[in-house]
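Sanity check record (used in CI):
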Amino acid sequence: MNVVDWQAIYGLWLRDTKRFLRTPSRIVGSLAMPLLFLVFMGFGFQGAAIPGLPEDVDYLQYLVPGIVGFTMLFGASFAGLSILADQEVGFLKEILVAPVSRTSIVLGRIAGGSTTALVQALLILLLSIPLGFAPVSLLSVPLAVVFLALLAITFVGFGIALASQFSDSEGFGLIVQFVIFPLFFLSGALYPLEGLPSSVRYLAYANPLTYGVDGLRAVLVGTSSFSVLVDLGALGFSSVVMVAIGASLFERVEAV
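Expected output for Multidrug ABC transporter permease:
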């Protein structure tokens, strides 16, 4: 048995992608909350004096990369839910007993979850343009996609690791929501981290989403707290670690 079976990875990616694209309600539902944050906060705090906000950057411009990062966090983390859904209908048992390595299954789920989360984030970025957002250059969009892909891999890995520890979707959903919002508020998505107390700021520096949002802001808006290389390095490291943890925990899932 090959450790990496590309045909199995492609099959799982295709299944997750088709399931997402064939359920318009899921697409609309995944965009509703980020869009509400974007509209109400973007226009509600327009012109407000926010400590640490660069003088030459409009708040909506500042906010959009944060909301795009939040969309990616939300969509990717809930990718683990599809594993539990497959467990309930018996599909997970079928792929676990198939002559395919667990590594290939994890990579297939990461590819599928990352693709659907990436589509959601790009739709939010597209919808922000009629609201007044304008990237500094269209050439920066491909680099933004790189940041989004690394964010997706990190948090799909996180979702798989978490889903491997649960047998019911209700408990998984509660824990994910309990984790997602602190990560969101501690990422600099809504306000500059420079305004936070130093002890809280250190927690933010340990948050992978911080580097994803900062990197998106660097390439789309032209302002950031860290250099692009630091953001890419931190996200690359977190994606490798989370995939390794997710694969390790998924190895222990029993085909019952």
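The chain has a mean pLDDT of 86. If this sentence no longer matches the regenerated tokens, the check is flagged for review.
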